Amino acid sequence: MTDVCIVGSDMTRFGRYPEQNVPSIGAQGALLALKDAGLSIKDIQALYCGNQLEAKAMSGQRILHLIGQTGIPVVNCANACATGATALREGWIAIKAGLYDLVLCVGVEQMGRGLLGGTAAPNGIPVEGLLGSGTMPAVFAKVGMEHARKYGTTFEQFAKVSVKNHFHSQFNPKAMYQKPAALEEVMGAEMISYPNTKLMCSVNVDGAAAVVLASAKKARELGLRSRAITIRASTLTSDPYSERDLVMHDFNACTRLAARHAYEEAALGPEDIDMVELHDCFATAEIVHYENLGLAKEGEGATLIETKATYNGGRIPVNVSGGLLSKGHPLGATGIANICEVVSHLRGEAGSRQVQGARIGLTHVVGIGSAASVHILERAYP
User: What class of enzyme is it (predicted)?
Assistant: First the structure.
């Protein structure tokens, strides 16, 4: 099967755009990626669109209505926080299968303010109940408290994740927030669900991100091979079997499964990765995912933040974009936005936040429900 390359990649600045709608935001992201590739919608053979909150609204077709209705097939995807990554993977599969040589993948969302996951679950079970809360802040508070129980991870260590990501965000012009936050400020912010304060929770924003995928042959034909980034691995998993009757899915297990498959597919290991954009929906999640992705041994995730190993310039930079905590988290766009960030570094185009010498990068998203996706990207040109 052919290699699949990213030949165009870009995103809107994440923020709040009440005067716009999903199609207009998505169209902006699509046009930015096409411009980066030097192509137009007339060159594209299929569109894969990720959009969660308006999943029934045929967002992909509505985007095409704005940028050019060429009659190409459109596939709309919704997969919780893994929505964008799922759309990208569908495009990757189509090129791998030989159906197309050139496709456009767009992730887009327009988020409201307030608590994510504050309504009843699809099965009608209330998220607030006698046994606790199923809201996202509460779920990831439980994740942090369990890690603290088992390994002694402290409130301050979780807060240091937010300090790091807010520090990184000041160098990212497309992040929602672009200012550092001191440890005292993070720890003293409004408590949402212990140990996550308000500054340790991801930001609900609007935004779009897009990539143009091409077969290696097509990239060479178009003269784009010199800037192309190869997708070494693309994985998507759900929860493996468990004898326990889980109320919420075990996102640790599906992330570890996705990571294992990705490393096997790429014939690489965690030690080969130069940078990571992972799903820091809450500060507690980032430390846990250090271990899930094999960046740290079991129980040693907090050591990475204490030693600043995951800062830009450290052993394994993580979320130099500012992460979901500071860049923002528009559900359908996040998975592709993570890809866009890594692509910019592998091309050496990340400006003041450039991870020096980056050649191989990993992206990760996880959607409660369950879906986990890991992509490994490589700069294949000299």
Answer: transferase
For residue 279, indicate whether it is catalytic: no
Helix (H, G, I), strand (E, B) or coil at 316: coil
Nearest to residue 374, comparing CAs of 261, 240, 271?
261
Q: Out of 5, 49, 77, 81, which one is annotated catalytic? A: 81
CATH superfamily to which 4-113+203-377 belongs: Thiolase/Chalcone synthase (3.40.47.10)
- C-alpha 148/C-alpha 143 separation (Å) is 9
Residue 166 known to be catalytic: no
CA atoms lying within 13 Å on the CB side of residue 288 = 26
Q: List, in sequence order, every residue forming a beta bridge with 196; answer none if it has no partner.
A: 193
CB 343 within 8 A of CB 375: no
| CA neighbours closer than 13 Å in the CB half-sphere of residue 345 | 31
Q: Supply 26's token pair.
A: 């998505």
Instruction: Kindly indicate the confidence band of residue 75, based on its pLDDT and cuts at 50, 70 and 90.
Output: very high
DSSP 114: S
Give the rounded percent of residues in the chain with a pLDDT score beyond 70: 92
Instruction: Give how far the C-alpha of residue 300 lies from the chain's centroid of Cα atoms, to the nearest Å.
Output: 23
Average pLDDT, the chain: 93
Q: Is residue 94 classed as helix, strand or coil in its secondary structure?
A: helix
